[in-house]
Amino acid sequence: MSRENVELVLESLRRAEANDVEGFAALMHPEITATAAPGWPEPGPFVGRDAALAETKRLTEWGENRFTDNRRGGG
After folding, report:
1. Cβ(26)–Cβ(73) under 8 Å?
2. pLDDT tens-digit map of 4-14
3. Is the predicted pLDDT of residue 70 greater than 70, yes or no?
4. pLDDT, tens digit, for every residue of 32-57?
5. Where do the domains of the chain lie, and which CATH numbers do they carry?
6. Between the CA of residue 72 and those of 9, 31, 68, 69, what are the distances in Å?
7. What's the CA gap between 21 and 39, in Å, rounded?
8. Is 4 within 8 Å of 54 (Cβ atoms)?
9. Is there a contact between 24 and 49 (Cβ–Cβ < 8 Å)?
10. Residue 24 CB: number of other CB atoms within 10 A?
11. Residue 38 CB: number of other CB atoms within 10 A?
12. Are 46 and 52 in contact (CB under 8 A)?
């Protein structure tokens, strides 16, 4: 993975951890296609940035779910 890609992934995780869902989505490719892990209730595919953003919002608004960078001692 290139250094540029590593930085993109780290920035997306920082935005997700900060609950900046719109900022997280801004880093997505406009034509993204996302699918969930096998067995997930809503498997997708989620086609396009709007669909992926809607699914991300749905997940972040569900209970206590959040993204955390555990390398920094987060939860």
Report:
1. no
2. 889 998 998 88
3. no
4. 999 988 888 888 899 999 998 888 88
5. 3-64 (3.10.450.50)
6. 16, 32, 9, 6
7. 24
8. no
9. no
10. 23
11. 6
12. yes
